[in-house]
Amino acid sequence: MPIPNMPTLPVPPLKQTKVFFLPLLVLIVSCGGGGESLRVFAASSLRGAFTEVAKVFEAENPGVAVKLDFGGSQRMRSQIEFGARGDIFASADSVHMDALVAADLVSGTPVDFASNSLVVLAMSQGRVNAIADLAEPGVKVVLANSNVPVGAYTRKVLENLSQDPTYGLGRSFKDDVLANLASGEPNVNSAFQKVVLGVVDAGIVYETETLLALEAGTRNIHFIPIPTAANVKANYPIAVLAEAAEPELADSFVEFVLSDRGRTLLRRHGFRSP
Amino acid sequence: MAVMNPVTQIRNNPAGILGSGGAVLFVLFIGIPVIALLIRAAQQSNFLDAVTGDTALTALRLSLFTSVISMAVVVLLGTPFAYLLARSDRLWVRVVDSLVELPLVLPPVVAGVAMLMAFGRNGLIGSGLESIGLHISFTTTAVVFAQIFVASPFFVRSAKLGFQSVAKDYEDVAQTLGVSPLRTFFRITLPLAAPAMFTGLGVAWARALSEFGATMMFAGNLTGETQTMPLAIMSAMETSLDGALALSVMLLAGSVLLLALLGLLTHPRWQGR
Predict the structure, then answer these.
(1) Does the distance separating the beta carbons of A71 and B221 come in below 8 Å?
(2) What is the DSSP code (8-state) at residue A272?
(3) Spatial separation of the C-alpha atoms in residues A98 and B55, rounded to whole Å
(4) How far apart are CA A159 and CA A153, in angstroms?
(5) What are the angstrom distances between the C-alpha of B88 and each of A225, B83, B110, B185?
(6) Interchain contact, A13 vs B130, CB within 8 Å
(7) CB interface of B with A, residues 211-230, below 8 Å
(8) Is the pLDDT assigned to residue A22 strictly greater than 60?
(9) How far, in Å, are B1, B7, B12, B13 from residue B4 at the CA level?
(10) Among candidate residues A68, A32, A20, A27, the one with its CA nearest the CA of residue B61
(11) What does the pLDDT look like over B175-233, one tens digit per residue?
């Protein structure tokens, strides 16, 4: 007796699945390999400089690939703490480097290799044309969060500007600027981009960003210098990580960064000596 | 024909005017950002460079590689699991059934932190694994873990509904006719549940490809190793809008393609009806 309502069976769909997967698999099985590689965790502000340093280092060490990962130093540090494997860490301040040293995640002693300072970045023809304007009610300011090196430096600079009466900004300057905070960013690059995209009126970033902006041909922004006495000297330490897969290669990369040629490259990107 | 006053019209057919109004607003709300993205991307001169650039291709390859692996795992393990959920009425199965959907409501960031606590360097299981040389957190494996965690419920849920829609009678009849249970499953149950499984797979795949929060927390953002497309977009946003736009358009195109494929696979003609 025929079974009522028995549907005709379709082509077993497993065959379709195979056809479906095939082009993807072909695409994927093109992963390269071979040669030594070095993974460098670096502060966001080093993006331009380290990209060039890595290129030169690769050219001088055939077969070596330098993988660069940029981010806020605090994020790089926490990634390393939670198990990210890399060979080198270059931080924008000593706080995050010292934390890794204390946790025995760094081999040897970190060495300062460069320094930086801060500058105000603002939209051209915008509401911010002088440092005092940052505190004007209604102005939108973007800063890095206080756990980000540049964010911590920024708060120190704002404090310096508030404390010294010669700048004429008033005691409440720091609080007034922080009250204008439109967004707290995780690294200097994203703070910079917020101003470039015109989302906010101004921000406080590293001086080295001025060169990056010039290079990128960004025209809708201008920079307002911060008086030297109120500014900070942000020192950048570098160290080989305890779990480096290629410790000797990592050592030679650090040596290269510290060498005259390395320093020249860094200087070209606006960094000063530590 | 008499012209009805609008209030009467709404009263008579709420789906008419209100529905059309809603449709227009909805399409604009979703459509305008998508069109804005395409316009801005088309305006840039180096669009092709950005699309074929190293960052984009590396991230794309990693996204495809990881999502294919996680989908293979999800289908291989999720199918028998979904079948159990569909056919068993035991208490523990019902409890598991309700737990399966937890990742759907759990914020992905929380999933990432939780996985870090489990499989991280000092994690519950991770510390043991580390001591025998197995590293999971901040590796490509972690990306796959994150994708399986957040995407598997979409497949399991859909496959379960698919199996439930296959009447138990068919299986019983086949077996009374002497067909082995396993053969019955592969020849009758699976083909009939296939459309639902494909839909589930498509949605799960889309979810895996768009995974961001859990990946960011648990796998980090390492180029070539854990930086998938969504993470590459975030990183690109920090350096150049152009790069972010190009990557976004690539993912948008992929999503539209997946949507079309889903429509095709679940088309009645494919369902053998």
Answers:
(1) yes
(2) B
(3) 31
(4) 10
(5) 71, 8, 31, 15
(6) no
(7) 220-224
(8) no
(9) 9, 8, 10, 12
(10) A27
(11) 888 888 888 889 889 999 999 999 999 999 999 999 999 999 999 999 899 999 999 99
Quick check: B138 and A187 CB within 8 A?
no
Token pair, residue B131, equals: 């001591």
Residues on A contacting B at a C-beta cutoff of 8 Å: 3, 6-14, 16, 21, 24-25, 27-28, 30-31, 39, 44, 47, 67-71, 79, 81-85, 187, 189-190, 193, 196-197, 216
Q: Is B91 helix (H, G, I), strand (E, B) or coil?
A: helix
| pLDDT of B129 above 50 | yes
Q: Which of A218, A263, A208 is nearest to A56 (CA)?
A: A263
Nearest CA-CA partner of A69 in A187, A209, A193: A187
Q: What tokens appear for B45 in the block? A: 């001169």
Continuous segment of H or E residues that includes residue A194:
helix A188-196
pTM, full prediction: 0.83
Burial class of A115 by CB neighbour count within 10 A (0 to 12, 13 to 18, 19+): middle
Closest CA to B140 of B40, B51, B223: B223
Distance of CA B103 to the CA centre of its chain: 12
Side chain identity, residue A200: V
Tokens of B262: 């889903």
Task: Please report how the helices A13-28 and B190-209 are oriented relative to each other, as an axis angle in degrees rounded to 10.
Answer: 30
**pLDDT at residue A141, rounded to an integer:** 96
Token pair of B134 as six digits? 């197995």
Residues 13-72 of B with CB under 8 A from A: 61, 64-65, 68
**Which residue in this structure is represented by tokens 């960004």?**
A218
Contact predicate A52/A270, CB 8 Å? no
Q: For residue B161, which phi and psi values (nearest 5 degrees)?
A: -60, -40
Please list the alpha-helical segments (H only) found in A122-187.
149-163, 173-179
Mean pLDDT along residues A165-182: 94
